[in-house]
Amino acid sequence: MIPDWSRLAPNRPLNPGNEAYVPRPVGAPRIADWILAGRSPLLVVGPVGVGKSTELAFAVQALATSRFVCRIPLDRVENMRTLTAERALLQIADVIARGAQHIYKIEISPKLLNELELATRNAPLGGEVSQQRNAEDLAVLIIREVNQKSTLGHVALLIDGLEKTPPAPAQLVFDALQRLLFKTEVELVVVVPWHAAYGPGAETVIGPGEKLIVVPPVEIEGTAGSEGVAFLRTVAIRRLQLDQEAIAQAPTDFGQPGGVLDQCAQWSGGIPRSFLQLLADAASYARVTDSADWPTLSHVAQAVADQRESFRRLLTPGDDAALRQVDGTDGRDMALDQKLRMLAHGVLLERHENGQPVMRPHPIVRFLI
Question: Which pTM does this prediction carry?
Answer without folding.
Answer: 0.91
